[in-house]
Design goal:
Helix 1 runs parallel beside helix 11 and helix 4 packs antiparallel against helix 8. An eight-stranded mixed sheet has the order 1-2-4-3-5-6-7-8, with helices on both faces. The radius of gyration is 18 Å and the shape is globular. The termini are far apart. It is of the alpha/beta class. The protein has a domain of 185 residues: 3-Layer(aba) Sandwich (Rossmann fold), CATH 3.40.50.
Amino acid sequence: MAIFNYKGQNIYYQIDGEGKPIILLNGIMMTTLSWEIIIAPLKNTNQIIRLDMLDQGQSAKQKSSYTIEDQADLVHGLIKHLGLTEVNLVGISYGGYVGLTLASKYPDLVERMIIFNSAAEVDNRDAELFKQFSHVADLDDPYAFYLTTIPIFYGPTFYKTRTEWMKNREELLINFFKNEDYRQSVKRLAESCLSHKLNDKISKIKATTLIMNGAEDYLIPYPKQQFLHDNIKGSVMMSMAKTGHVSIYENPVLFVSVIYGFINNPILKYTI
């Protein structure tokens, strides 16, 4: 168990493998454990760095509000703590917010970056969704919390083909969501998204960037990723068919293949 002390708070992180470093940035309800499904194939070629950000997993729970930029500064602190001068980032959803913020604020620190199912800003429509998360966290109704937060993450194809898995997941999560401290941590994480606005800053990003969209993503739909592609110089964009917001679980083979190939390919620009 590795602990990094950041501004007096204990931040949990884990490192597997050796090679070019890749930092994995959690989605809003993810922890370091959420990535376990993809670690084995990646740690054979890369140093994989996972961390729980503020209010996530085994890291310090908060008593006051914070922002996405605060989370990015935390990641920056860990990078410095580890003595790294250049890193590669993989961020999904909330982690994409953090990755984009880090890469725009510290552009020389990030070599390559993959952003799954994320966006440059939280607009009014997105804010209403996050406010739902915040509101239902206070209701002491685990089933309502489940219905508000989980179904929108998965695409219709996954629901149709993995019905039994989803049913089992529902039972497990409803029981887990009885934990009020956990619901309140998600509330604070959701509220940290409300000030996320990078539209006029992402042009500062120097990292070679791949933007991944889930074709069935309702939570953060295609136009959000198209905006990133249009405004991050030299970026490339791909869409994952039959995939919603939780692409790591809905399409893990492609998810891993994209990370492995994009981060490790020595040539990303070809003259044809």
